[in-house]
Hints:
- It is a single chain.
- By secondary structure, this protein is an alpha+beta fold.
- It has one domain (8-166): Gcn5-related N-acetyltransferase (GNAT) (Aminopeptidase, 3-Layer(aba) Sandwich).
- It is 32% helix and 35% strand.
- It is built from 5 helices and 7 strands.
- The protein has helices at 18-28, 35-44, 88-102, 117-125, 158-166; strands at residues 8-12, 48-55, 58-68, 71-79, 107-113, 129-138, 143-150.
- The chain has a 7-stranded mixed sheet with strand order 1-2-3-4-5-7-6.
- It is globular, with a radius of gyration of 16 Å.
Amino acid sequence: MLSIPKNLVIEKMTPRDLDEVLSIERQSYPTPWSRHAFNSELTANIYAHYFTARIEGALVGYFGMWVFFDEAHITNIAVHPQLRRQGIGEQMLKFAFEKAKQLSATKMTLEVRLSNHGAQNLYRKLGFEDRGIRKGYYTDTNEDAIIMWKDDLGPKTPQEERVKWMM
């Protein structure tokens, strides 16, 4: 049984977080995003929502998503390699579900490397289903990506249910 950190704090990412984010990014991916890419997401993309996860002030993970219309798309997610499989990624995704619902999303999608079985297991545990393959999606290794969808982010907010009932 994993113990999910009780003192995990998830908050909006800012440009001040990028040194720490980039450190985890470089340890997590064969072709990490650049500072410019993250900064552009934080400052120029109106659909982008990025968050950090900290324990006792130390950055332990981060994720980003785009929300447009009723869909949310996880753009990236990473947990410090020494802290994986402790429930941090799960907590970040559950936070993402709630934040996406607040922004009117009803479903969520992501891509995951065919070889990343740990992440796939987490996503399936949280209700994502395989929906297709993107051939050669990861250009650094030409690896395929599995397209996964979670069709139901949970109950609508009470106001949305009331409006639906009145129609």
